[in-house]
Amino acid sequence: MAAESLNNHPIRKNAVVTGGNKGIGYEICRQLMEKGVMVVLTARDEKRGKEAVEKLLREESCYYQQMNLVVFHQVDVVDPQSVSSLVDFIKSKYGKLDILVNNAGVNGLMVEGDVSILPEMIEREAARGLSNTTEEDEAPIKSTGKLIENFGWAEECISTNYYGAKRMIDAFIPLLLLSPSPRVVNVSSLLGKIKLVSNEWAIKALSDGENLTTEKVDEVLNEFLMNFKEDLLKEKGWPNVFSAYKVSKAAMNAYTRIVAQKYSAICINCICPGFAKTDITCNTGPMTPQDAAEGPILLALLPEDGTSGQFFYRKNILTTF
Questions:
Q1: Three-class SS of the chain
Q2: What's the pLDDT at 286?
Q3: Domain locations in the chain?
Q4: Is 100:183 a contact under the CB 8 Å cutoff?
Q5: How far apart are CA 205 and CA 321, in angstroms?
Q6: What's the rounded Cα separation, in Å, for the pair 280 and 300?
Q7: Residues 6 or more apart from 60 whose CB is under 8 A from it?
């Protein structure tokens, strides 16, 4: 990008991107830089985060170095002290926050054997998420691999994907409210569609938009984890595949609506960026991280009259959560 283009931003926007050291998060950072946004790339691992910043500066124009368009700050979204340290950094250095992209996440499972099981199941479940029916596809799976889930990974998945994103939003709301056009982008998934949560009580609770509260979301998550620990997922009607991932993303989507209703000044949306080749998908997706980042970038830079409290699939609003 030419210097003249960057100089068209008299009041430069600044952004925080979690999980920015690789995959879609890294691409979101790069594309925000291209738009003249000052990016704080964050990651749990300090070494990997700093290496990602160095890579961005090597790959992009030397002008980005002169303009200081990217810096690293360590953050672990499950650690309140870590998040608080990041907030203090943003407050002291920039005084406000314009864009928060909650991209950090885990899948809550392990693939055993043939990794082609992952794209097969993701594509099947995503198709269910987009369909108008609740019927499960019983088509035989070709792969011989297995998706292994356990309670420890389920806890980590809920803690990272939902409570981590919620912690970031809650912590940054005061600084976001100081921005003339605050934007929050929650990177979600079609697998987080409410109907894929399967449990009828949970679906009803998360679908009740007018009466949705964080307490109700907590109740759903606590019930899910208790049933998981007691090996009652099947008996209680919870998902039998991608269990924790689906529930965690459905909870994130629900919190997106809660924040949108509570803070009209903040434009907040969630988005499924598409099935991309990343570590979380064992590099099996049909899309590149570059293509998948385009949707989150669109939401991060929505105009003044941009929509809020919506669920996007790539660049399109879905009619239901």
A1: CCHHHHCCCCCCCEEEECCCCCHHHHHHHHHHHHCCCEEEEEECCHHHHHHHHHHHHHHCCHHHHHHCCEEEEECCCCCHHHHHHHHHHHHHHCCCCCEEEECCCCCCCEEECCCCHHHHHHHHHHHHHHCCCCCCCCCCCCCCCEEECCHHHHHHHHHHHHHHHHHHHHHHHHHHCCCCCCEEEEECCHHHCHHHHCCHHHHHHHHCHHHCCHHHHHHHHHHHHHHHHCCCHHHHCCCCCCHHHHHHHHHHHHHHHHHHHHCCCCEEEEEECCCECCHHHCCCCCECHHHHCHHHHHHHCCCCCCCCCCEEECCEECCCC
A2: 87
A3: 3-317
A4: yes
A5: 13
A6: 22
A7: 30, 33, 34
Is CATH 3.40.50.720 what the domain over 3-317 is classified as, yes or no? yes
Q: Look up 63 and say whether it is catalytic.
A: no
Residue 200 near residue 220 (C-beta atoms within 8 A)? no
Name the token pair of 99. 């864009």
Placement of tokens 């690789």 in the chain: 22
Q: Smallest Cα–Cα separation from 159: which of 215, 227, 233, 222?
A: 222
- Please identify which of the residues 64, 94, 163, 245 carries the catalytic annotation: 245
253: CB partners within 8 A, 6+ apart = 186, 188, 192, 194, 270, 311, 321
HSE-up (13 A, CA, CB side) for residue 48: 13
Q: Which of 136-140, 175-179, 275-279 has the lowest mean pLDDT?
A: 136-140
Which residue in 197, 218, 208, 175 sits closest to 84, CA to CA? 175
Tokens for 11?
A: 């009041």
Place of tokens 């991107």: 17
Enter the pTM of the model. 0.93
Alpha-carbon gap, residue 70 to 53, rounded angstroms: 7
Give the number of other CB atoms < 10 A from CB of residue 170: 13
pLDDT band at 150 (very low <50, low <70, confident <90, very high): very high
pLDDT in tens, 185-212: 999 999 999 999 999 999 999 998 888 9
